[in-house]
Design goal:
Number of domains of chain B: 1
Distance between the termini of chain B: 50 Å
Number of strands of chain A: 9
Radius of gyration of chain B: 17 Å
Order of helices and strands of chain A: EHEEEHEEHEEHEHH
Structural class of chain B: alpha+beta
Number of strands of chain B: 6
Helix content of chain B: 40-55%
Number of domains of chain A: 2
Largest sheet of chain A: 7 strands, antiparallel
Order of helices and strands of chain B: HHEEEHEEEHHH
Strand content of chain B: 25-35%
Oligomer: heterodimer
Largest interface: A-B, 42 and 50 residues
């Protein structure tokens, strides 16, 4: 959310490198190659990250019309993860374990007969079955974060300020486009404003200014 | 020196930039003139967050009313705290933006933009981006003015004036 509607909290990045002449073809293909892959209830993949159209995050492919807007490329990073309701996991586990034990019957230990115990691997197997059953009945938690890339200015905005999410975004962006991102900062903003080398050096060599008061 | 080292060594410029904005918003009655002749009005709005240098846990959050005019804010600066975030109200012509500016990254959050005039989805996107880029460019213009002062000969006098302004405002008796 952000580029088209909703919250306006973002981080600005400078994109290092020039777009190719056929950037629309090339970037459409690269985004499609790193398209979001939905999670499956079966298996142990708990989280998935990829690109989706900002205007339709559950679409299955990009269309040129919804990606390129004059100087802007607008898309989104989608992060899905399974958020299992822990109460349901516990309750269903308890029930499934009891059912397995009842099925196994009583086991003789010396003079006594006790309920059979489940091995760790048997418990793990039951848990996987329970978790898969729950996953088949729920949808994963979904987060969609917009990206608006101004191709003329080699600058983009990413609608999150979470360090962890921003790091993941930068990594995915770099592996998709082969372009490095530099997050905005007082120094890079000064450089982008066109300060001279000597002024930039003066910035680097300046100590933090703290007011000193006469008491 | 590697670029990341330069980035880290100069983060303190963001802290001073926020203090400079606060100072000029008060002494110049919120009016700023940029190098491209743009005139704008800027005021610290309803929140200012001050932190002890290198210790985020020692944080003073002043919100509601006019925190930038409170004695507590000036006292915090006098005690050596730096501004980590400030909520800013910026006006240019008929347009107004409200947002929080973070000192270490100069990133904008919680931005409220002027009402959109367009109706179609594509036009809304362009207008929204244009309004975001406009405020971004105004902040950059302000930062450029600050840097020219901070890195130039005017800083010597300006820094003395800032100290006097802080002292005067932190001292309740003098204010009365």
């Amino acid at each position: 959310m952000g580029a088209l509607e909703g919250s306006l909290s973002f981080k600005t990045y400078y994109v290092k490198g020039e777009p190719p002449n056929d950037f629309q073809e090339t970037y459409l293909r690269k985004l499609q190659e790193h398209f979001f892959e939905p999670l499956s209830p079966v298996g142990d993949v708990e989280r998935s990250v990829g690109w989706v159209p900002a205007q339709d995050p559950i679409a299955t492919e990009f269309s040129r019309d919804h990606l390129f807007f004059n100087q802007y490329i607008v898309f989104a990073m989608r992060i899905d993860k399974w958020a299992l309701p822990s109460c349901w996991v516990k309750a269903l586990m308890r029930q499934a374990v009891a059912a397995h034990i009842a099925e196994a019957g009583l086991k003789e230990t010396g003079d006594e007969k006790r309920p059979a115990k489940l091995s760790k691997s048997a418990k793990d197997k039951i848990k996987l079955e329970v978790v898969t059953r729950i996953k088949q009945q729920i949808l994963p938690a979904m987060k969609v974060i917009d990206v608006c890339w101004n191709i003329q200015e080699n600058k983009l905005r990413f609608w999150s300020q979470s360090n962890a999410v921003c790091d993941e975004f930068a990594e995915l962006f770099e592996s998709t486009f082969g372009l490095q991102l530099d997050p905005d900062s007082p120094f890079l903003m000064a450089r982008e404003l066109g300060l001279s080398e000597s002024q930039l050096d003066a910035m680097v060599n300046a100590d933090p200014w703290h007011p000193v008061f006469d008491h | 020196m590697e670029i990341f080292e330069k980035i880290e060594r100069t983060r303190h410029f963001g802290e001073l930039f926020l203090l400079w904005l606060w100072y000029h918003s008060q002494v110049d009655d919120t009016i700023f003139y940029l190098s491209d002749k743009t005139t704008l009005s800027l005021a610290i709005d309803s929140q200012i967050i001050l932190e002890a240098h290198l210790s985020e846990s020692e944080r003073t959050t002043l919100s509601g009313g006019a925190p930038a005019e409170s004695r507590e804010a000036f006292e915090a600066i006098r005690q050596g705290k730096i501004i980590s975030q400030a909520k800013i109200r910026l006006q240019r012509d008929e347009k107004e933006w409200v947002f929080t500016l973070a000192s270490n990254t100069l990133s904008i959050s919680g931005l409220k933009i002027p009402a959109l005039m367009t109706k179609s989805e594509d036009d809304k996107l362009y207008e929204r981006q244009a309004l975001i880029e406009e405020v971004d460019s105004l902040v950059r213009g302000l930062y450029e003015s600050f840097l020219q002062t901070r890195l130039g000969p005017a800083w010597e006098q300006e820094s003395r004036d800032i100290i006097t302004w802080i002292s005067d405002n932190a001292d309740l008796e003098n204010r009365a």
